[in-house]
Write a sequence for this structure.
């Protein structure tokens, strides 16, 4: 099976899940799950650690990447507008001594600011520090307080976006605020558009960053979008980079995005940097040696994996700590049973911006001794079995090059070997028979291999799509089929013009060169609107481990693929 992101689970993960499932703990409160809630928090800390964060982090398990991304952007939105609420509160209580550090590094009196723009662009750390300073000065003005932190939260709430709601928050301000935006790559997961709607941001405020022919953020296009936002004073709630796109397994230039953020921060525009590593987050385990020390050169990884990573990919993995939040799905390359996603934040203080009280699940004043997850998360019930599963897997399989790194490394090696085998033999053999095989992920960043087939001389995109659909039909599995009849199963996807047709800074969209290699005029993409792409996901280590054996899956697959493609090509040529 080399179709979708499905693979076997780790034995300790299965054991942990089954053992906890018998008790059916609900991790919303440690009162209902005294053991598995602790496991959940530990898992989140572990994944925050492999993301390169060493301070006081916060995170938890979700049902998957969609909810994790939602919580990341929910908090990003609230952080973005928190300084304005603090400004209003400081004005109301004449807290003129409160100072704030702007993104440019300048330190000014909060109440002296006469426009919202500077406050919409301070760093997350500065925003949270500002909240603490306003709290400290506000407490000094109060003559009678019960629980100071609770009273402060109640006093602040009427000024916040959470308290007022979007409409009142924006319309009741003296100085208008332009609609805030989210910046996401064209290859971003479709959940981000849903999230923009749920958070009241609006789908039209989701600005897609064009991607290159390698399906990675075009830094020049990102810079142009940010320049436009700066000139028009449009607040940027967050910019999302992807570590392992769902369709292609591409890794965005996280290092360059981080550098661009620093550049614009110095000019007065700042934003939350979220990394959607639902697919590729666990590859960070390859950056830690057997002593859990960070590896500063790709050499040891290349020795273990062969042909991976490139210097460029390694630099991008190294840049992950620059993010403010990260989504990682243990139920993908963590080999944990569904459902198990994780959201983690660099600064634990952000969780208070989405805190809600529910007396029946516990009092937040007891949290030092009894964690209460339900106060900070969207889900009201959550399975402790997922936490136990992930926790036990991490205990048995180390989160470094000797543990998960070995497992994931073999899947990456298998992907590279399949790619090279096709490149060295299958592509040439098919070409001799009048069929073009072209890889759009060349070489693959992770363990997804996307390719297209076309009959030489055909210049119709519709005809090419039909040919690739026919090939897919030979390798797909349908519920009514008998699975044993299939030697190999692959998947497919569609690249739409709406996303992949956005021109980069050089004027070309991501598919121009790929279509040219296939003999298709690129203008047809705009007319046909979509390209059918064949896709193999190598999530199993066995493709690599079985090389040279009687069950060499790489050899077997390329032989069957070649046979089926040539068989179909004959019928298409005849038609």
């Amino acid at each position: 099976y080399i179709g979708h992101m499905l693979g076997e689970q780790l034995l300790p993960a299965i054991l942990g899940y089954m053992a906890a499932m018998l008790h059916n703990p609900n991790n919303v409160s440690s009162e209902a799950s005294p053991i598995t809630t602790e496991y959940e928090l530990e898992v989140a800390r572990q994944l925050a650690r492999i993301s390169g964060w060493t301070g006081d982090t916060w995170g938890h398990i979700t049902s998957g990447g969609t909810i994790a991304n939602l919580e990341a952007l929910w908090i990003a939105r609230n952080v973005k507008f928190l300084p304005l609420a603090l400004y209003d509160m400081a004005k109301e209580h004449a807290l003129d001594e409160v100072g704030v550090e702007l993104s440019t590094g300048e330190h000014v009196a909060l109440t002296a600011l006469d426009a919202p723009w500077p406050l919409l662009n301070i760093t997350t750390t500065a925003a949270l520090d500002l909240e603490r300073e306003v709290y400290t000065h506000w407490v000094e003005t109060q003559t009678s307080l019960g629980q100071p932190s609770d009273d402060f939260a109640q006093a602040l709430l009427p000024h916040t976006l959470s308290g007022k709601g979007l409409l009142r928050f924006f319309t009741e301000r003296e100085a208008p605020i332009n609609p805030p935006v989210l910046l996401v790559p064209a290859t971003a997961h479709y959940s981000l558009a849903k999230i923009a709607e749920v958070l009241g941001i609006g789908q039209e405020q989701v600005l897609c960053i064009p991607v290159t022919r390698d399906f990675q953020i075009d830094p020049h296009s990102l810079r142009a979008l940010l320049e436009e936002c700066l000139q028009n004073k449009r607040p940027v709630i967050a910019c999302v980079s992807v570590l392992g796109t769902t369709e292609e397994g591409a890794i965005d230039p996280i290092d360059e995005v981080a550098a661009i953020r620093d550049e614009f921060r110095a000019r007065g525009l700042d934003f939350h940097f979220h990394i959607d590593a639902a697919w590729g987050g666990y590859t960070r385990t390859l950056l830690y040696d057997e002593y859990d020390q960070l590896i500063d050169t790709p050499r040891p990884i290349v020795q273990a994996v062969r042909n991976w990573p490139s210097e460029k990919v390694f630099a991008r993995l190294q840049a992950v700590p620059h993010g403010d939040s990260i989504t990682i799905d243990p139920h993908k390359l963590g080999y944990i049973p569904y459902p198990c996603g994780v959201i983690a934040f660099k600064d634990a203080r952000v969780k208070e911006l989405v805190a809600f009280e529910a007396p029946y699940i516990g009092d937040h004043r007891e949290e030092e001794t009894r964690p209460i997850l339900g106060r900070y998360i969207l889900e009201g019930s959550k399975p402790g079995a997922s936490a136990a599963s992930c926790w036990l897997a991490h205990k048995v399989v180390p989160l470094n090059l000797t543990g998960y790194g070995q497992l994931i490394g073999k899947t990456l090696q298998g992907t590279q070997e399949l790619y090279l085998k096709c490149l060295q033999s299958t592509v040439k053999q098919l070409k001799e028979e009048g069929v073009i095989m072209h890889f759009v992920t060349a070489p693959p960043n992770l363990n997804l291999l996307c390719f297209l087939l076309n009959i030489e001389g055909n210049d119709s995109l519709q005809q090419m799509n039909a040919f690739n659909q026919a090939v897919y039909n030979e390798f797909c599995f349908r519920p009514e089929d008998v699975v044993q009849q299939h030697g190999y199963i692959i998947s497919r996807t569609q690249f739409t013009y709406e996303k992949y047709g956005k021109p980069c800074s050089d004027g070309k969209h991501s598919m121009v060169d790929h279509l040219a290699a296939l003999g298709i005029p690129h203008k047809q993409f705009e007319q046909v609107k979509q390209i059918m792409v064949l896709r193999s996901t190598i999530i199993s280590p066995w493709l690599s481990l079985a090389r040279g054996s009687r069950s060499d899956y790489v050899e077997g697959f390329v032989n069957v693929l070649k046979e089926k493609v040539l068989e179909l090509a004959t019928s298409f040529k005849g038609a």
